[in-house]
Amino acid sequence: MSTSRNTSPHHLRRRSGHTRLAASGLTAVLAAGLLAGCAEDSGSTASGSGEDGKRTVSVGVFGVFGYKQAGLYDEYEKLNPGIRIKENSTERNEDYYPALLNHLTANSGLSDIQAVEVGNINEVANLHSDKFVDMAKAGGVDKSAWLPWKWDQAKAENGRVVGLGTDIGPMGICYRKDLFKKAGLPTDRAEVGKLWTGDWSKYVDVGEKFTKSAPDGVSFTDGAAGLYNGSVSSYALKNYDRDGELIYKKSKAVSESWDLAMRAVKGDMTGKLKQFDKEWDQAYANGTFASVICPPWMLGYIKEKAGEKGADAWDVASPPKPANWGGSFLTVPEHAKNKKDAVALAKWLTAPEQQAKLFKKQASFPSSQKALALPALKDARHEYFDDAPIGEIFSDAAKGIPTVVLGPKDQLIQENIGNIGILQVEQQGKSPEEGWNSAVKKIDDAVED
Predict the structure, then answer these.
(1) Per-residue pLDDT for 27 more than 70?
(2) For residue 159, which of 169, 187, 226, 314 sits 20 to 30 Å off, Cα-Cα?
(3) By the 8 A CB rule, do 327 and 167 touch?
(4) Are 382 and 420 in the same domain?
(5) Looking at the structure, do residues 219 and 195 belong to the same domain, yes or no?
(6) What residues are paired with 329 via a beta bridge?
(7) Where do the DSSP E strands lie in 332-399?
(8) Is 204:269 a contact under the CB 8 Å cutoff?
(9) Vertex 153, ends 151 and 154: CA angle to 5°?
(10) In which band, very low, low, confident or very high, does the pLDDT at 21 lie, cut at 50, 70 and 90?
């Protein structure tokens, strides 16, 4: 992502970390969901064989993807004694991605494997596909191993598949059972999920009921931008149509999601919080909001910020509709110095077995549908969230996620609608029309540049 607030799982694992070091970009404190970490920016250089005769395969990532922390690099090197892996990690994707584009233009300075965030994959696939190996034609790559919508995200219009999917972010709803009970709502996760099944507007309906009987000082949800993100991400068409035309101003997904966000603000259902800011973290600790839209990678963040006081309070329910937040891909540039070895490593790292191991150790939710059937996923539970069957909940959500039509400015549009438009209404008291117009101006100025 190229804007100031990166919302990918990799970034999130980093962000909690500058205060503690990053449940977002990560230096890891996770296990079944606890994330942490921060990454060094060690540049993006590729290297060949060393003096010991080993071939060095360089891997360029943003934040901490968890491969090193989960021991996968060490495992691969043991299986392939002639290979040494060097990871080059830039902390923020907004620094990493522009540098990647510069290296592609110069055909130099590229790592053998380059990670690409989902918000950038469309631009890479459709503007630069000739600069990457077509992974669909790499020997041993089984398209059916991935969730179809994830595979399609990296597919260019010319049919080339520029990357293999790593993690994904199927959304659920994390909620405080104690606060729901005080507001007269059900607390059992199955019953809670039924309250809003099928429509994000039902989630707001529940918010209205909660707000009428809410405990003092407690809001139904953290902020309207999170609601907007959950709703808009459940549509196949949001900012672009299938011909690549920018349609966000007339998009049903955008207009309906905006209206839901404004309804929540008007109904005083939100805590008026900007996600990943200090105030948001403090609100977890103080228990001042009752629900948040949460992908699997956020569970560790919640556990860390809510702390011991929240250990018996939080649970996870199914979302109103399946939607995705976050995820990345591993690509191999055509000008990689060790292209053959890089392809082999990228295939191995994204194979179902490795995705399952990464989930177990780093809480990165697999994009491999074969991994979802493995016991490590299928039977996964999270003790902090009342032993919630997170493998089942998030797997079910993942299978229903639509193949979203992505465009080159999706990230920018999302950020400006949330952080400019919605926050102006929510925090500054501006009218919905004023907030929308401010977001549109920012987006149009950036698109026209």
Answers:
(1) no
(2) 169
(3) yes
(4) no
(5) yes
(6) 116, 165
(7) 365-366
(8) yes
(9) 75
(10) very low
Q: Which residue blocks in 384-431 are alpha helix, DSSP H?
A: 390-399, 410-416, 423-428
**Tokens, residue 148:** 């179809």
Provide the percentage of residues in the chain whose pLDDT is more than 90.
81
d(CA 299, CA 29): 12
DSSP string, 23-86: SBBEE---STT---E-----------B-TTSPEEEEEEEES--STTTTTHHHHHHHH-TTEEEE
Boundaries of domain holding 369: 9-168+326-399
- Residue pLDDT, tens place only, 47-64: 456 667 899 999 999 987
Rounded to the nearest 10 degrees, the angle between the axes of helix 278-286 and helix 9-19 is 80
CATH of the domain at 343: 3.40.190.10
pTM (2 d.p.): 0.84
Specify the 3-state DSSP secondary structure of 242: coil
Please answer whether residues 359 and 30 qualify as being in contact, where contact means their C-beta atoms are separated by less than 8 angstroms: no
Q: Which two tokens stand for residue 399?
A: 């299978």
- Same domain membership, residue 217 and residue 74: no
